[in-house]
Amino acid sequence: QVRLVESGGGLVQAGGSLRLSCVASGSIDSLYVMSWYRQTPGKQREMVASISRDGTTNYLDSVKGRFTISRDNAESAVYLQMNNLKPEDTAVYYCTTEDYRLRWGQGTQVTVSS
């Protein structure tokens, strides 16, 4: 029932930063784990980061120290701050929950040039 809309992507040079936003149509208070995934053509979708209701976070090894996931339940939003971006970070980024299956949204494109 929850619908998630991603935004904030764009074109950035290596070393730059972007902040992705994920806004839900409904409350995310009941969702235990929110997460960000990314996918490039011909490659499998991979989990980039996750955050639980109590604030516990997990990150893909390649983004540790560079990306930060956060959530604001009052605003029904999840964010992904991406710093020191690398060309390999180029992908379409999606927001979802690990609690149950949700239809993937349109995602937001992140392109990092060298």
Q: How would you characterize this protein structure?
A:
- This protein is mostly beta strands.
- It has no helices and 10 strands.
- It has strands spanning 4-7, 10-13, 18-24, 33-39, 46-52, 57-59, 67-72, 77-82, 91-97, 108-113.
- The chain has a 6-stranded mixed beta sheet with strand order 2-10-9-4-5-6, with no helix packed on it. The protein has a 4-stranded antiparallel beta sheet with strand order 1-3-8-7, with no helix packed on it.
- Strand 4 and strand 5 (46-52) form a beta hairpin.
- The radius of gyration is 13 Å and the shape is globular.
- The model has no long low-confidence stretch (mean pLDDT 95).
What's a concise summary of this model?
The chain is mainly beta and about 110 residues long. The chain is built from no helices and ten strands.
Main attributes of the structure:
mainly beta; six-stranded mixed beta sheet; 10 strands; 0% helix
Taken as a percent bin, the fraction of beta residues is over 45%
Largest sheet: 6 strands, mixed
Write down the secondary-structure element order.
EEEEEEEEEE
Structural class: mainly beta
Number of strands: 10
Distance linking N and C termini: 40 Å
Mean pLDDT: 95
* Helix count from the secondary structure assignment: 0
Shape: globular
The percent of residues in helical segments reads: under 10%
* Sequence stretches where pLDDT stays below 50 over 5 or more residues: none
Radius of gyration, in angstroms, nearest whole number: 13 Å
Strand order of the largest sheet: 2-10-9-4-5-6
